[in-house]
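To the team - heme C complex, inputs and output below.
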Amino acid sequence: MQGKRAPIQAVSINGEDPKVKPNAISGVRSLALGCAIIAVCGWAGPAKAQAAGQWKDGLHLYTKVCANCHESGVGPIIRGRGEELAPEYYQFVVRNGLRAMPAFRPTDIDAPTLKQLSEMLPHMAPPGGGK
Ligand code: HEC
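Output:
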């Protein structure tokens, strides 16, 4: 066990100049840089899918966004509650959030789709078949 690291010595393997070739290093570097760029661009792709106008209609929005919480027990049931919840109230909660519920910007949920959803939700069938 040596106290100090011994200086690395270049050794010729097959009689060639043992000095490290600069080209070999830059080749490896640019390969690594290329990988990094691909990784970064790869991440930018899916983010673009989040654009206003992506919702076919209110039901599409409900199924893709609201239902994740409101049909899974995370948030309360919000369909089929009739007069209890006004369309304006749905719109207010979606834009401003409510305690554990996040707010959604117009770039995530456009106003016409939100309006349509808020008008259909009170009249949708409540869960459990509604006997
Ligand atoms: C990340 C989960 C999540 C998503 C997504 C979500 N919500 Fe909520 N929402 C909640 C939670 C949790 C509450 C209960 C907040 C509280 O009272 O503390 C809530 C409450 C509400 C309320 C109030 C209900 C009441 O009884 O007063 C409305 C209205 C509502 N959400 C509408 C929506 C709509 C419309 C969407 C889809 C555009 C949506 N939420 C998407 C989690 C979510």
